[in-house]
Amino acid sequence: MTGTLVLDPLIPMLALYVLAGAALLIIGYGLVRGLSGWALRGLGALALLAAIANPSLQREDREPLSDIVIAVVDDSASQRIGNRPAQSITALARVQAEIAALPNTELRVVRVGDGDGDSGTQLMTALAEALAEEPRARIAGAILITDGQAHDMPLAPDMPAPLHVLLTGQNTDWDRRLIVKNAPAFAILGESVTLTLRIDDQGAVPAAMAGSAMISIAIDGGEPQSYRVPVGEDLELPVTLPHGGMNVLQFQVAVTEGELTDRNNAAVVQINGVRDRLRVLLVSGEPHAGERVWRNLLKSDPSVDLVHFTILRPPEKQDGIPVSELSLIAFPTRELFVEKIDEFDLIIFDRYRLRGILPNSYLQSVRDYVTRGGTVLVAAGPEFGSADSLWRSPLGEIMPVDATSRVFEQGYKPELTDLGKRHPVTEGLEKLAPAGGWGRWFRQIGMTPKSGQTVMTGIDGQPLLVLDRVDEGRIAVLASDHMWLWGRGYEGGGPQLELLRRLAHWMMKEPELEEEALVASAIGQKLTVTRRTIGDAPAPVTITGPDGTTTDLILPEIAPGRYSAQYDAPEMGLYKLTQGDLSTVMALGPSAPKEFEETIASGDKLEPVVTPLRGGILQLENGTADIRTVAEGRVAAGRGWIGITPRGAYLTQDIRVAALLPAWVWLLLAAGFALAAWLVEGRRGPNGTQSNSVSTLT
């Protein structure tokens, strides 16, 4: 119980001050004049002013409240390496025991994991939130059990008590990390781009480990190539992308004995390969209705650089017109088919027949171009089954079909085979059909498949579109010259543009149109794994996490030839996916998250916050700390100990207010002092001399 004197004046305080001033002046005047009753009159004025001030005695019944100490335990990824988890457990147990031994003191434990996204350790945010949940008057101190690598230092709260750090880690810790300083998001195929890498060492690096390191480089999960490079220097790495679409470059620094962690030894760079121009050579054997459709289709794409030749005047044509009067361009056969053939990305033979314009040696050059990685599309017409068919040239040796010399002239609707419904070139094309289905074609060239993949059929199930791989290249045969009917919208038409686009991209080896592919995409930490195949259902995909743990993911079929499932990744980092001979890598967030950018335990970041609060930073390697109580404003840390400040907070249970004296007592006191002053002055006189009565008789 405590008592406090409070005032509740009967008049405004200003008026009370005025009265007090007036009384002081009068008393002072009496003192100066030497009046004998000035002291008693002053006491009477004081009693009167006290009565007007109405003093009361306030009594409170208080219940003492315990002091609160907040312990923030860092459970982020960087705290899970080495012996730091054991250090944290031991330190927390010691803090709990020390606080339990202190009277009237409670401990609040807050744990901090990895921040959302790649925000790192939000240590100060957790401390601020814990402080907000408790009354500031009860906070006696805070203790951080961490490696010191906090990533939200600007959010440090205003502490009403000392802040201490118990630092995990060892003085002998060292680590090596790989940094990607510069990497483009996309690059032109065939042109070199430069990546800037750097390998840095941190901490107490052994002399034998400094100087250089081994780094391996792999593209799209392929066989890695290793190189020895210097440490602590920027590495300029020229890269030429091997294919269009997304190229995944994986860099891995060899793990060295004694290194703190290998989580920051790897990096993944994803570069989208784009073609500057798709160079297409279109050779039309003769004018026909579909020729203009081919030309318009290819010219409408600004990314296509088209070279188109139409044979309008075959050599056997003899009409007597002098050559000098003809406005025809000579076919530069040697330049196109020998000297510059490798500059073309795609060669299309549209109803071409053997007329002696291209000798067998040139067609042999086209065949060699395909085996070296080139692509050829043959759009066949009635000439394909004749004696001058392109099938009878050296190019026919790599064609996936044999000619039957039959030409069917009747209406039919192209259909997808079971394989075609799963093949990425034709998958889902039936969904693009207009109402009533695709429009009809009216000519099909008889062929017998001998290799490759038949994805479309026509009359009586005969092959209409056959795709095949030849060594490094690819070839496709379309057994009809009536695809132009789709482009003209006959009977509703069909997906001519989409089919030819996919066909061209498949022949250009774009990864998204590969028959056998394992791809992954991510939104946040949700990984979507997709397996495309034209074969049987695939086996489960093995996912290897950043920490080396493996998980088998079963992929259900979501569409013909497409299997997909989602995987909730437990943490950010580099994931490797393998299934049979296929493999790919996927980085969730950066391959080396912020938690592993700086892995050496240090109190440097926290020192500017701890020092002004008179706290301390103690290394757990040197032993756990004792906890003492210190007075507010005193140094709260020393060798082997840390201090908390008792706050003496309380809860008021009851308040009682009573007048200091009754009003009649104040009145009696004031009157008594005034009467006493009058009697004194009456007997002694106003100047303090004795007053005597003298009678004079006259």
What would your notes on this structure say?
Helix 1 packs antiparallel against helix 2. The chain starts with a strand and ends in a 14-residue tail after the last helix. It is elongated and about 160 Å long. Residues 692-698 have low confidence and may be disordered. The strands form nine sheets. It has an eight-stranded mixed beta sheet. Strands 4-3-5-6-33 form a five-stranded parallel beta sheet, sandwiched between helices. Helices cover 20% and strands 34% of the residues. The chain folds into five domains: 2-63 and 653-684, no CATH class; 66-166 and 599-648, Rossmann fold; 174-253, Immunoglobulin-like (Sandwich); 279-313 and 331-507, Rossmann fold, CATH 3.40.50.880; 514-588, Immunoglobulin-like, CATH 2.60.40. It is of the alpha/beta class and 698 residues long.
Task: Give a brief outline of the structure.
With about 700 residues, this protein is α/β, with parallel strands linked by helices. It is built from twelve helices and 37 strands.
Q: Determine the fraction of residues in helical runs and give it as a percent range.
A: 10-25%
Total strands: 37
Domain count: the total is 5
SS field, number of helical segments:
12
CATH architecture of the largest domain: 3-Layer(aba) Sandwich
Q: What top-tier CATH class of the largest domain fits best? A: Alpha Beta
Q: What fraction of residues sit in β-strands?
A: 25-35%
Looking at CATH, the homologous superfamily of the largest domain is Class I glutamine amidotransferase (GATase) domain
Strand line-up in the sheet with most strands: 16-15-17-18-24-23-22-20
Low-confidence stretches: 692-698
Compute the CA-based radius of gyration.
Answer: 47 Å
Derived structural class:
alpha/beta
Q: Could you please say which CATH topology of the largest domain applies here?
A: Rossmann fold
The coarse overall form would be elongated
Distance between the termini: 76 Å
